[in-house]
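Thread: ABC transporter permease, structure

OP (GT): Posting the sequence first so everyone is looking at the same thing. Length is 159 residues per the record. Can we get the structure tokens written out before standup tomorrow? I want them in the notebook alongside the other entries.
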Amino acid sequence: MSATIDIQHFLPHRKPMLMVDLILELNKEKVKTTFEILPENIFVENGYFAEVGLIENAAQTCSSIVAQSYFDKADLENKDKKDVIGFISSIKTLKVYSLPKAGEKIETIATLIASFVTEMYTTCTMKCETFCGEDFLMECEINLFIKEKADEKGGSATR
């Protein structure tokens, strides 16, 4: 997919917990996102974006690879208003090399390593790398659990 996508259409996160601005590139195995770190961000400490912010950015980036299978490919604004939820089930590895400053823009690239898909949920293992310009900030391998949110009648939606 080559069009930039406003990730707010596809994640349940809202400010102050939204840590991705745009999806720059997305296919079944790779995603690239961008995020501008504003000084008022809840994870900015002493002028720097904290490690927990980098981890949340990575998780939100990674979730878009798996979450895309829950949405109609032609609906880039999620007009069907599907709601997908997910969480980090484990962090397998994490190395933080540097923290970006408030006001800087980071790019995060995630690659699907493995996934397990059922009618009710998906689990996956993702490799993720975050950069600020040429600076390599972080790398990690995380496991995510993702599913479509239950409908208002209490039932679970399926794909």
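GT: Both are above now. Quick notes for whoever picks this up: The longest strand covers residues 135-148. Residues 152-159 have pLDDT under 50 and may be disordered.
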